[in-house]
């Protein structure tokens, strides 16, 4: 097994978020990854990608021979990390409030610390590293319970640490030590904020007195809309909460993943940045939301994609705000997870041609139109525009769902999804009596059908192949 000394397995992280960004909390109660203020913004904490220089926010119960366990409050994204020792039991509750901050840049991480048994001393280390750990910062202690961190060359991003116990500054980092008796608790909060939003700051009482129950109620109310009634309720609901965390409350788009730079295999070089909205991934997610009764998310996404379709053609991937994806670059200052380099931000797939996205998108719109709400004429005109591109381009080679970077091929999956795009558009038009060139669309659909059967069968291996002329 490859040595990952100093790095926890990826599965030893829980996720909390507020539908603007997320934070990853380790099994030992260290926040090792967070981008701010958006999913695709620079990191404030990136220890996940550099254990020495990435930055983290950790709470360490001072007990020997601890065993730890993580679990979520059922039906929520509120995360509990528990420490078990002969000396006592400690519990850290982590969450990000989701109400009250929609119109500003504030992202708050609330950390409740409680001693369940015994008398436990805790050491707390808050070590922000702005702009992918490239930016310097200043540290200012406002009072005994409040510290401000301000990035020098990262757009004046700020982080505010506040608590209901004394805080200290050590080497420009936040530090605290507190002893909590059995049954007692305290609270520490990190707010990330842009300087112009400082008038919106709240005191510690705001977070310690009401945001926990408000956050729990939000998530329980949301998951209560689920129509799933099978035997795997807990697993399905946990999965769909995770998908919800990756959607943008402000835009309706969603990121394919919360992270960047993590290797597909240790010391491998396929370490991509997935903090963007891939049309394919988002379409599949909206299909899942629709199947489970979460129609509001699908409606917001279709509005977002309709706005993106005003241009010449649909792009493969967008930023969370709907702009072009940042240029792919490598962060030389980060050693990478378990020293797996390069660490990349941005994604060159933004310039690729992947024709299958039309099929996944229009199939999701078809499900939406069939099972939830009939689409309007404006969205139909967007579909027509997409079908015109499919008819024009389906014969072209593309990079495929696998995003090959060494050239284009005629991929079976892309060809099939072009057929799906036209087929589902025809079904929508017939259902709604929308005008469309029926003879042309049906003839083109049949040409793709015949091309698949005639062009992708490999007689030697007795199977349809990945791409024309291939043997796999």
Can I get a quick summary?
The protein is an alpha+beta fold. 29% of the residues lie in helices and 25% in strands. Strands 1, 2, 3, 4, 5, 10, 14 and 15 form an 8-stranded antiparallel β-sheet that branches. Strands 6-7-8-9-16-13-12-11 form an 8-stranded antiparallel β-sheet. The protein has a two-stranded antiparallel sheet with strand order 17-18.
Explain this structure.
With 472 residues, the protein is α+β, with helices and mostly antiparallel strands. It folds into two domains: 10-223, Beta-galactosidase, Chain A, domain 5 (Distorted Sandwich); 233-464, Glycosyltransferase (Alpha/alpha barrel). The chain is built from ten helices and 22 strands. It has helices spanning 130-133, 204-209, 211-223, 233-245, 279-292, 295-308, 357-371, 377-393, 412-432, 438-455, and strands spanning 13-17, 22-26, 30-35, 43-45, 56-61, 67-72, 79-85, 88-95, 107-117, 120-127, 137-143, 146-151, 157-163, 168-170, 173-180, 185-194, 277-278, 317-318, 329-330, 344-345, 457-458, 463-464. Strands 1, 2, 3, 4, 5, 10, 14 and 15 form an eight-stranded antiparallel beta sheet that branches. α5 (279-292) packs antiparallel against α6 and α7 (357-371) runs parallel beside α9. The longest helix is centred in the last third of the chain and has 21 residues, at 412-432. The radius of gyration is 25 Å and the shape is elongated. The mean pLDDT is 93.
